[in-house]
Amino acid sequence: xxxxxxxxxxxxxxxxxxxxxxxxxxxxxxxxxxxxxxxxxxxxxxxxxxxxxxxxxxxxxxxxxxxxxxxxxxxxxxxxxxxxxxxxxxxxxxxxxxxxxxxxxxxxxxxxxxxxxxxxxxxxxxxxxxxxxxxxxxxxxxxxxxxxxxxxxxxxxxxxxxxxxxxxxxxxxxxxxxxxxxxxxxxxxxxxxxxxxxxxxxxxxxxxxxxxxxxxxxxxxxxxxxxxxxxxxxxxxxxxxxxxxxxxxxxxxxxxxxxxxxxxxxxxxxxxxxxxxxxxxxxxxxxxxxxxxxxxxxxxxxxxxxxxxxxxxxxxxxxxxxxxxxxxxxxxxxxxxxxxxxxxxxxxxxxxxxxxxxxxxxxxxxxxxxxxxxxxxxxxxxxxxxxxxxxxxxxxxxxxxxxxxxxxxxxxxxxxxxxxxxxxxxx
Amino acid sequence: xxxxxxxxxxxxxxxxxxxxxxxxxxxxxxxxxxxxxxxxxxxxxxxxxxxxxxxxxxxxxxxxxxxxxxxxxxxxxxxxxxxxxxxxxxxxxxxxxxxxxxxxxxxxxxxxxxxxxxxxxxxxxxxxxxxxxxxxxxxxxxxxxxxxxxxxxxxxxxxxxxxxxxxxxxxxxxxxxxxxxxxxxxxxxxxxxxxxxxxxxxxxxxxxxxxxxxxxxxxxxxxxxxxxxxxxxxxxxxxxxxxxxxxxxxxxxxxxxxxxxxxxxxxxxxxxxxxxxxxxxxxxxxxxxxxxxxxxxxxxxxxxxxxxxxxxxxxxxxxxxxxxxxxxxxxxxxxxxxxxxxxxxxxxxxxxxxxxxxxxxxxxxxxxxxxxxxxxxxxxxxxxxxxxxxxxxxxxxxxxxxxxxxxxxxxxxxxxxxxxxxxxxxx
Amino acid sequence: xxxxxxxxxxxxxxxxxxxxxxxxxxxxxxxxxxxxxxxxxxxxxxxxxxxxxxxxxxxxxxxxxxxxxxxxxxxxxxxxxxxxxxxxxxxxxxxxxxxxxxxxxxxxxxxxxxxxxxxxxxxxxxxxxxxxxxxxxxxxxxxxxxxxxxxxxxxxxxxxxxxxxxxxxxxxxxxxxxxxxxxxxxxxxxxxxxxxxxxxxxxxxxxxxxxxxxxxxxxxxxxxxxxxxxxxxxxxxxxxxxxxxxxxxxxxxxxxxxxxxxxxxxxxxxxxxxxxxxxxxxxxxxxxxxxxxxxxxxxxxxxxxxxxxxxxxxxxxxxxxxxxxxxxxxxxxxxxxxxxxxxxxxxxxxxxxxxxxxxxxxxxxxxxxxxxxxxxxxxxxxxxxxxxxxxxxxxxxxxxxxxxxxxxxxxxxxxxxxxxxxxxxxx
Lengths: 427, 427, 427
Hints:
- 3 copies of one chain form a homotrimer.
- The first copy, chain A, is an alpha/beta fold.
- Helix content of chain A is 32%, strand content 23%.
- Mean pLDDT of chain A is 96; it is low at 371-375.
- Chain A binds chain C through residues 351, 353-359, 361-362, 368-375, 380, 383-384, 386-390, 401-402, and chain C through 52-54, 87, 106, 116-123, 217, 220-221, 224-225, 228, 255, 280, 282-284, 289-290, 292-297, 309, 314-315.
C-alpha cells in the first residue's frame, strides 16, 4: 500500500464520525489520530473557561435526529448522514406544519442533489440540512421533528503532539478536526499532518515540531490562550487544510508576508513543477486568522490545494470520499516533507576562505580539464554557496538568488563544510 | 441647477475678464471668488518686494489695444478677445509696415483659425496674437498699432481662504488665477476649488484647509516667501488645474512620490472606475514646481484631467467655454471630495483585543449561521481593520492591502470603535 | 584608419602568439600592449608564491608539439595552430597506438571542423586538440607524439597601467591575457582596454584608472593578494571580455547589484539604442568571480557582447579573426568611453537657491516668451538638476528619474554651477 493509499484509508475511517467543535465525535477522532502517531496529548478545557475574547462553549452531543412525515417515515435522518443536522442544534421534539418546518431547513438551490453543511455554534437554534430536491418533494402536512442532542457543560477537546528536536525552537503544524463528514475540508489535513508527525518522530529533527489537532477558531483561540507565554518559541508555522482535492496547490502567506515559512513554501512550490499559486495574507480562512492576529503575528502560513469556498463541493455533502484521492494526499505529504527539509536545512554559513575563490581543484572538488563550455550544476552550487556565505545569507537566500534547488545547495554546503571551507554562522 | 451647471456658470462669468499675474482683472476675479465662498483674504504685495529668488514685478493694466489698417479699421482688437494682446505688453503707439508689424505677431501655424496665448512677463516687449488665417490675409501697407497699457509700480494680488478645522494641520489647495480668457487652464480649477472650499466650510473638518487663488509661479513663490515659517503645518496639498475638459484624470505625484496625498488620490482614482493615469513628479507644470522645490519639498501633488500641453486647445483661443462642461466639472468636484474624505478619515487604529479575533458574534457584528461559502464584504472589512490595526497601519494602508473601498473601512472602523474593539492610535 | 580598424589590427597582431597563464607568450603580449599604451608595469611573481588560497604554478613554455603518423607526417601540429596543444601539457615523447593516442585527443563532436581549446593547468597531463573530422580520418597504426614543453619553476607575469587622475580613488579595468589564438575571448578585451587606457592618459581624469592585463583566475588572485591593503581605493571596476563579436551587449552586474558601476553601465546601455541585456551577478565567468568574492566584494561588473559559452565559436578555433570586427570593437570602445564619462561626471550637487525655483530668466537661462506648449529638453534638464540637487541625489540619480541623457544633465549642471545656482556637495 502506498503512503497515499494509507492516508486515504485513514480519511475513510474518520469520515463517518460526527465531529463538531466539542463532543465525543471529536474525542473519537483524536483517539484514531493517537493510534496513528502515538504520544498525542489530549486536553479537556471546561465549558465556561475564558479564552482570550471568547468563552469555551457548552459541549454538544447528539444521539439521534430526524424529520418524519405523517406516516412516521424518516424523510431526513441524521443516521444516514451527520450533515443533515445543523451542528450545535438544540434539542427539540415537535410536530410542525411543512411551512413551519421549512424555516428550519437549509438547502443549496444551485446544487439540488447536495446537502449543505451548516453550524450554529453561538446562537441557540436547531435546523436540518437536506437536498433541495428532497425538500421540494415534501408534501404538505405535519412533520415530526426530533433532535435528541445535549448541549451542556462539558469540555472542549483538542490534541497536540510534540516531536522533540535538537532545539526547543518550534515549527507549528495545525489542522482543524471539527467538521463532520467532510473529507477534504478536515480529514485530508488530519491525515497529512498525522503522517508528517510520524515521519518526523522517526528521527531527531533540528526544530521541535508541534502538531495541533484542534477545533477551528475556538480551538486555536483556546490553545493560544493557554500557551501565550510560550509562543516565542514558534519560529515557523503551517496550517494544513484542504490538501486532498485534485486542484493545484494554494499557499497563503503569513501576515508578515516574507517570513521564512513563506519563502520556504514558495521556493518549494516554484521548483515543484506542480500547478500552484501563492496568495497574500487575508484575515479570513482557517486558523491562520488566529495565529496571525496582530497581538500574536506568528509566522504561520496555510497550505491548501484548491482554495476553500472556491470549489462547488466546499461545505457540502459532495466533499466526500470521491473528492479526495490517494495520489493527491501523497503529493501533499511530499510537499510538506520538502518544506520541512528546507526549514531543517536553512542555515547561514561563513566562507572560511572568502578572499578570491578557494582552489577547489586541489581539494578534489572541481573538474580538472578546464575550458569546457558549461559548468556543471553541482559546481555552480558550490560557487554560489561560497560566494554568498558571508554570514548574511541563508541557503534559502542562495537558492532564491541562484535559482538552484535548495537540496543541492544544502548538499554542497555539507561537502564544503567537510572540506573546511565553510562553517555555520553562529550569530 | 446641478452642481456642475453652477460650476460652469461661474466659469462662464469669469471667462471674459482679462487676468494676468497682476492687475485689476485679477482683482475682479478674486472679488467674484469671494462672493462665491466668502471669507477670502486678499493680499496686495508691492512691486519690488523680494520674494525668494524673485522680485514682485510691476503691475500691468490695459485699457485698450489694437492694430488698425490704413483705413483705420481694427484688424486685431483686444476688445474682441484679450488673448490678442501678449500679456505684459509695454505701451506703444506707432505706425509700422506689415513686415515690421509681423515681428510682433504670434500665430499657430498648425491651427490657422486659433489665436495663441502668449506672455512676456520679464522681458519688456509688446506683441499681438492672432489667427494664422488673419495674419496671412493682411495686405501690404502701413498699420497703426496701439497698446494702451500701463506697466508701473503697483501690487501683486492673491487670495486665500482658510477653512478652519479641528486641528491646525493644513491641507493646501492651490489654483492659478492669472490666465485671461482660457476656460480649462485656469477657470475650471478656480471653480472646483471654490466649491470645495464652500462645501468644507459647511462643516468642521479634521484638517484646516487653505485654498490659494494665486497667479502662477510668482504667486506661489510670493506666498511661500511670506509663509515660510508656517509651512510645517502643511500635511497634504493639491494643485487643481485643467479639471474641466472631457479627458480622463491625470494625477501627478508629489516630489516625495509616496506621500499620503499621492496614495489617497491614487486609491480614489483606482476605485473610481474612471479613466485615469498617475504620473511621476517632474519639475515642470503648475505651482507644484514651487511647493516641491527641494528647499520646501511639500507633499503636494496635482490633479488635472488631460495633462497640460498635450491637448491641442492648450494655451489657445480654443480653450474656451466649449472645451469645458458641467459634467466634467462636477466629476472633478466629486473626485476632490472623495480625496478629502480619505484624508479626513485616514487614521491609525489600535485593536484593543489584538490576541486572536475578538468574538464579533456576541457583539452582534457577525452573521450567526456559520458555514456559508462566502463572507460578506462588510465582515471582511471588519476583519481587515482588526487584523491590521496594530498602530502601524492607517486605514489607507488597509484599503491598499485589502483592496476594499476606503469608505467601507472607515465606516466599519467607526462601528468597531463604538463596540470598544478599536481606538485611534495616538502616537 | 578608424579606431575600430586600429583595434582590429592589434587583435590580428596578437592572434598568433601562444599565450597561457604563464610563459613567454604572455610576456610578448605584454610587450605589445606596452608599445601601444606606454607605462605598463610588468610584475613577475615566482613559482610557489602563496597567493590567497592558491599557489603560483610552474611556468610553462613550449617549443614544439606534434603528432606524426607512421610515415613521419605531422597530422596534428602546434606550429599550424597553438590550439592543437592542450595548454600546460607536460613534455612527452612516445610512440602510441591510435587507441592509446585517442585517450589524449579532444574534439568537438558537434562541430566536426573546429578545434577545441582545452587546458590542464593544475593536473599534470598532456593532450592534443583537433577537429573531429581529422581524428576520425586517422588510420590505425602507431603514432609518434612529441610535446617539447617545459613546466618548471619560473614566474607568473602580469601587467598593469595606472592612469593617474586628480584623486587616488580608482577605477579598475581588468582583462585576461592568457588565451592563445582566440580572438574574441581575450584579444578583443585587450585591444579595447588598451585603447581606453591610451585615451584616458591623454587627459587628467577625476579618478585614477588602473588597467590590469592578467592571466585569468590565478592572475587576478595574485594581483588581489599583492594589493590587498590598497583595495579600499577601488570605487568602480569593469572586467572587459568578449567585446569583439557581432552580438548585442551583455552587462553582468557586480555582486552588490546596485553599485554605481552597475547603474552607470545600465544607464548608458539603456540610452544607447543598441541591443543589450543586463544580467544579475553569478559567481561564474571571468575575473569578476575573484573581485566579487565575499571577502573583497568589490563593485566590479563585466561588460561583454554575447555572453561567453553561449555562442558556438566560444573556446574553439572558430573564435578567430573572422568572428571579431572593427565596427564591433569600435562600438565597444565607445560604450566604454561613455561609461567613463558617466563615472567622471557623476557628482552630487546642492541647489544654492533651493526654495522655489530660482529665476532662470534673469540669468539668461530661460526662454523669454512664455506660454509655449513645450519646454525644451535643456530647460527640463536644468529644472531636474535644480529640483533634485538636495545633496542626496547624484546626476545619475537625476538621469534615471528624469529619463534625460546623463551628458546633458552634466552639461547643464556645469552651467548652473557657473551661474552660482549649484555647488558640488562635499559630504
